Amino acid sequence: MEAIVFEEFGGPEVLRFKDDVEEPHAGPGQVRVKVAAVGVNPIEYKIRNGWMEQAFPTSLPAVPGNEFAGTVDEIGEGVTGLSVGDEVLGWTATGAYAAYALAQASAVAPRPAALEPTEAAALPVAGETAQRVLDLLDVRTGETLLIHGAAGVVGSMGVQLAVALGATVIGTASPANHDYLRSIGATPVAYGNGLVERVRAVAPQGVDAVFDAAGKGALADSVELRGGTPDRVVTIADPDAAKYDVVFTSGGGDRAKARENLAHQAALTADGKLRISIADTLPLRDAAKAQTLSEGGHVRGKLVLLVG
Prior knowledge:
Low-confidence stretches: none
CATH class of the largest domain: Alpha Beta
Distance between the termini: 11 Å
Largest sheet: 7 strands, mixed
CATH topology of the largest domain: Quinone Oxidoreductase, Chain A, domain 1
Radius of gyration: 19 Å
Number of domains: 2
Number of strands: 15
Strand content: 15-25%
Order of helices and strands: EEEHEEEEHHEHEHEHEHEEHEHE
CATH superfamily of the largest domain: Medium-chain alcohol dehydrogenases, catalytic domain
């Protein structure tokens, strides 16, 4: 089958397109999916560079990718509730940059007919991450939430989910993204020097919680805005979290709940009640280009690889 493979750690040039990779087959509790689209995430270039070996040891050769949209084409022993031909989205047990990928049956959700594969493939990681952080922060109706990196894929998902909860959301972003933030329900502020004063100007009552999706050195300001306490400040991206006694979250949690949330988010997106921004789509062969763009850090929205 066709797949993207890397056999050593390094820059994007180590990603190779191959057409003779052995096809995987569904084991107990698994389904095999004919992949239509794959979401590209920053964690993938970090793994490819070898930067994540302590947290996520990688056996080489490896196929990148964690989230997909596609069609179930093989069912493993013991799987119920899924059939060959079902359109699904979810998280892989093997790399997703491939014509076929395996997934635990518990890690896939149905794809509504109105939800295109491109959008579906962009949803699992961003939706799960945003919901996980909101749950950790225990964001409630009437509270004020500050989100750093609010125009990014995870940040913008967090904005929309928090607004749906009845929270007031302030989002940091570059001025070029302020109109976008207003369109999804956030009050925008520019990041950088003077952030504390700008946030206080739009939220004189203070902020109840902070969601850092950017990881660009805003934790000291976040703690200050919380009245000097790291309580209810969570980051998914800043390696200095421990320095400020801030919670760092990178995954895990209740997979059954994540699957239920994904199905709900897919339905909302199909109905136009939840928006996920697609920055660009590229063919699978251009995976190295996609990861280069991702690593550059200036993409607003999701990069998606199209398979087949």
